[in-house]
């Protein structure tokens, strides 16, 4: 409700309308509204108090001159210079902190969490920390320690809505399709949230600890660093430059499904995993493939995509984009046919000459803790050295003497 009349406003939707009404209609200003933890209770308190005593007992009077010839106008300012107002704000802040801590404790003990990862199809149930830790370790998307986060369901919904709207979580730029968004976030290192975006403050406990201060101001007081954003941007640029430099070095290997290429095996693997939901390493472990079977599977997929055939259902397409859209929408990318289809000698030979992805497969195998060597299912038989005339010592002596 308005402090002085019968007008009523929805705080969640029209808080600014109420403040404008107070200024225009009643010449009344509330200072630092954004620092009031519970605006509804704040208004209710002062509506009652302003009926008990004159407004000048609580407010500073400000005189405004529109022009030299116009008479002065009186405006009333309610702020925390008044001890009663300061105590009220601190009480509401403490009450809000207790409420947030109680909510956080409930979330920490709650095991009814049920959600899908923002970046892959893995589903998580139980405690919220499992998904938050998974995104940090598997997707390098770190939003902080689970115990420092509150209202996590609302937080995850907020982030998921942005991704559904094809909006980058960091720069908030909107893209034409999901593939472009994922590629942008990966290459620009935008797999994070914007630290100085105030809409995220409500999800972190640290922002409720001290009245009028967010996490950046508290952090600045701790280390005396006033250039957090500048340093973050500089570090991001340095990492991006290093990443691009590594990208340019070495032979480029092309993705199985699109035109993306990279000289880094990890980079190409992340690309196929995040943009196409295709994890060759996971397929290898699931199907217990040895190195040569991996080669044949890659060559088989290469040929099918080149011919415009979905290997999941064998449907043919004239346009490669239509093929990929179909495979993404139907999840046929992860539907690998039976080994009898692709585990054939003809797929020892690459579809493209000098397919560097096959070279990267060999590099990956060498870095894979020798797992495939332990039980690759391929017997290695030493080749017998054929007997020749040079094997005879008498014959060798005759040659040397001559």
Automatic annotation (TrEMBL):
InterPro entries: ZN622/Rei1/Reh1_Znf-C2H2, ZNF277, Znf_C2H2_sf, Znf_C2H2_type. SUPFAM superfamilies: beta-beta-alpha zinc fingers. This is C2H2-type domain-containing protein. The keyword Zinc applies. Belongs to the ZNF277 family. It comes from Lottia gigantea (Giant owl limpet). Pfam families: zf-C2H2_2. Keywords: Metal-binding, Zinc, Zinc-finger. Residues 166-195 form the C2H2-type domain. The lineage of its organism: Eukaryota, Metazoa, Spiralia, Lophotrochozoa, Mollusca. SMART domains: ZnF_C2H2. The keyword Cell membrane does not apply. GO terms for molecular function: zinc ion binding.
């Amino acid at each position: 409700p308005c402090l002085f009349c019968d007008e009523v406003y929805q705080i969640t939707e029209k808080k600014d309308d109420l403040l404008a009404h107070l200024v225009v209609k009643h010449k009344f200003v509330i200072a630092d509204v954004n620092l009031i933890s519970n605006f509804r209770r704040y208004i209710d308190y002062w509506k009652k108090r302003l009926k008990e005593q004159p407004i000048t007992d609580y407010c500073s009077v400000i005189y405004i001159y529109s022009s030299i010839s116009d008479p002065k106008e009186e405006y009333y300012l309610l702020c925390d210079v008044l001890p009663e107002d300061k105590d009220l704000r601190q009480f509401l802040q403490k009450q809000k902190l207790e409420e947030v801590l109680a909510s956080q404790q409930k979330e920490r003990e709650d095991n009814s969490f049920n959600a899908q990862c923002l970046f892959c199809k893995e589903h998580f149930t139980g405690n919220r920390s499992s998904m938050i830790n998974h995104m940090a370790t598997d997707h390098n998307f770190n939003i902080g320690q689970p115990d420092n986060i509150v209202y996590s369901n609302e937080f995850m919904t907020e982030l998921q809505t942005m991704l559904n709207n094809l909006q980058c979580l960091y720069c908030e730029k909107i893209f034409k399709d999901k593939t472009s968004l994922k590629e942008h976030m990966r290459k620009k290192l935008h797999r994070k949230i914007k630290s100085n975006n105030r809409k995220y403050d409500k999800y972190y406990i640290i922002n409720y600890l001290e009245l009028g201060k967010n996490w950046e101001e508290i952090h600045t007081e701790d280390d005396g660093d006033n250039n957090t954003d500048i340093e973050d941007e500089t570090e991001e640029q340095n990492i991006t430059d290093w990443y691009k430099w590594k990208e340019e070095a070495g032979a480029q290997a092309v993705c199985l499904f699109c035109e993306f290429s990279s000289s880094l095996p990890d980079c190409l693997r992340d690309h196929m995993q995040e943009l196409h939901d295709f994890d060759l390493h996971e397929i290898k472990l699931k199907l217990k493939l040895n190195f040569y079977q991996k080669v044949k599977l890659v060559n088989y997929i290469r040929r099918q995509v080149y011919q415009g055939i979905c290997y999941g259902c064998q449907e043919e397409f004239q346009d490669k984009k239509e093929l990929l859209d179909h495979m993404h929408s139907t999840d046929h990318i992860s539907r690998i046919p039976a080994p009898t289809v692709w585990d054939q000698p003809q797929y020892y030979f690459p579809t493209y000459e000098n397919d560097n992805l096959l070279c990267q497969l060999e590099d990956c195998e060498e870095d894979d803790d020798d797992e495939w060597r332990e039980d690759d299912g391929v017997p290695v038989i030493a080749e017998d050295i054929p007997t020749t005339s040079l094997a005879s010592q008498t014959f060798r002596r005759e040659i040397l003497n001559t």
